[in-house]
Amino acid sequence: QVQFVESGGGLVQSGGSLRLSCAASGRIISIVPMGWYRQAPGKLRELVAGITSGGTTNYADSVRGRFTISRDNVKKTVSLQMNSLKPEDTAVYYCNFRPASATSWGQGTQVTVSS
Fold it and tell me: In this predicted structure, what is the pLDDT of residue 103?
């Protein structure tokens, strides 16, 4: 069973940037499709960015042009660069497979954007 560990969240002002990182045991993170998800208070968890094993990316409309997902197959990490952050980006961010595995959710990392 793979467990993901997310890091890099924090408190930032509107317009600021953060870079999230995701790591997991083993080499699996470098060879399968991965995604970054987020869950805001009172809302369902949603996919914000995905990346295939070949590096093809896709984004939710709400973050396209501001967020960039990438993977480092040497370090076995998946990152999410978030620029031009908005208060509505406030949420707990998680990484997981794509599609997500119900048994692999980690603790997530809190991102709070102040106006």
Answer: 87
Cα-based distances in Å from 12 to 42, 55, 82, 85: 21, 28, 11, 8
Residue 26 has pLDDT above 70, yes or no: no
Tokens of residue 33, six digits: 């499709």
CB 24 within 8 A of CB 31: no
Given a cut of 80, whether residue 25 has pLDDT beyond it is no
Per the CB < 8 A criterion, the answer to whether 68 and 48 are in contact is no
Other Cβ atoms closer than 10 A to 109: 22
What is the rounded distance in angstroms from the CA atom of residue 46 to the CA atom of residue 56? 19
- pLDDT tens track for 77-105: 999 999 999 999 999 999 999 999 888 89
| Contact present, 55 and 49 (Cβ < 8 Å) | no
The whole-angstrom separation of Cα 23 and Cα 73 is 11
Sign of CA dihedral 20, 61, 90, 102: negative
